[in-house]
Specification:
The protein is an alpha+beta fold. The chain contains six helices and six strands. The termini are close together.
């Protein structure tokens, strides 16, 4: 992989920041999964969410199989952060950038395992509801939290803030690769 070439292409994207990490630097926590199970309306409704992604330990093992991780973040401002519809409407732009970064890694010969934001929204109705496998496993990116990853300590170690102001949304994706 030509990291210098990759970084040149990353610099052309509207990323707030990016950081190369070792997967072992990430914090995996059952507490994050508990939040998914008890507070997220998507729990059990998508292959991108628990329990469809497997246990936290299985997810951790999957992530640790890779030698490198690229964390990317985008930020966007909304008029009212309390307006969940307005906030979520900014997510597709981040997902498009995540897909672009995935394509850049593939151009470099990597086969990235991508974690991104929220639940997958490719299909109007997830196949999990019908007891069927994911229709688009190559396009579906489980969310970071689904794997039990507490991203806040990683952001702090990198000198990044998660909250930048009352109406700023921060989106984070992790791309694992060898």
């Amino acid at each position: 992989m030509n990291r210098e070439e990759l970084e040149e292409k990353l610099a052309e994207l509207p990323l707030y920041c990016y950081q190369f990490l070792k997967p072992q630097e990430l914090e995996f926590s059952e507490r994050i999964r508990w939040i998914c199970e008890h507070e997220c309306p998507m729990y059990g409704k998508s292959w991108a969410c628990p329990p469809g992604v497997g246990s936290v330990e299985t997810c951790r093992e999957t992530c640790l199989r890779y030698g490198s991780c690229l964390m990317i973040a985008t930020v966007t401002e909304v008029r009212d952060i309390a307006d969940i519809h307005e906030t979520l409407a900014t997510r597709p732009e981040h997902e498009a950038i995540t897909n672009q970064v995935g394509a850049l890694l593939r151009e470099q010969g990597a086969a990235p395992y991508i974690l991104s934001t929220e639940a997958c929204a490719i299909c109007p109705r997830c196949a999990i509801a019908d007891g069927q496998p994911c229709r688009y496993p190559e396009r579906m990116h489980p969310c970071v939290e689904s794997h039990g990853i507490n991203i806040i300590p990683t952001l702090e170690r990198c000198g990044l803030e998660f909250q930048y102001g009352d109406n700023v949304v921060t989106w984070v994706s992790l791309l694992f690769f060898d």
